[in-house]
Amino acid sequence: MTADSDQQIRELLESRTRAFALRDATTAAAAYDDELVLYDVVGPFVRRGEDPAGRLEKWIASYRTGIGHEIRDLEITAGADLAFCHFLVRISGTMRDGTEVGMWVRATSCLRRQGGAWTIVHEHASVPFDAGTGRAVLRGEL
Asked: How far, in Å, CA of 107 to CA of 52, rounded?
């Protein structure tokens, strides 16, 4: 991996973080490839061919505040035109109904470089669950 690829991918992820704080779905969606396949925390299990800006607008609109999007433990592996990264991300903010959100999500992003620019072609976000109760584990020690 070149330092240039690493920096470009970090900037792509950081631009989404800034966009969520500003409630800017268009900028956040610009990170996604036209052929995006998304395994999101919220169903359905697989999203293909869906307009990511429209999905993000609905998500952002469910918050009264900007959305906190803190990335931790980012690891990037990149080749010439393909890369993947995995990280933890803390989502936070206040929803329209007053619910305070503060949860950790695991994420993996697969990226493709075309014309010198990286875009996310596949993203998988998940939460661990407690096998005894079947409930999601959204808070706790990392």
From this structure: 17
Cβ neighbours of residue 60 closer than 8 Å, sequence gap 6 or more: 20, 23, 25, 28, 67
Helix (H) or strand (E) holding 110: strand 100-114
Residue 38: both structure tokens together: 């998304």
Q: pLDDT (tens digit, 0 to 9) for every residue of the chain, 142 residues total?
A: 577 999 999 999 999 999 999 999 999 999 999 999 998 877 667 888 788 899 899 999 999 999 999 999 999 999 999 999 999 999 999 999 999 999 999 999 999 999 999 999 999 998 877 788 888 776 765 5
Q: The pTM is what? A: 0.87
Contact criterion met (CB below 8 Å) for 54 and 32: no
Report the alpha-carbon distance of residue 103 to residue 95 in Å, rounded: 13
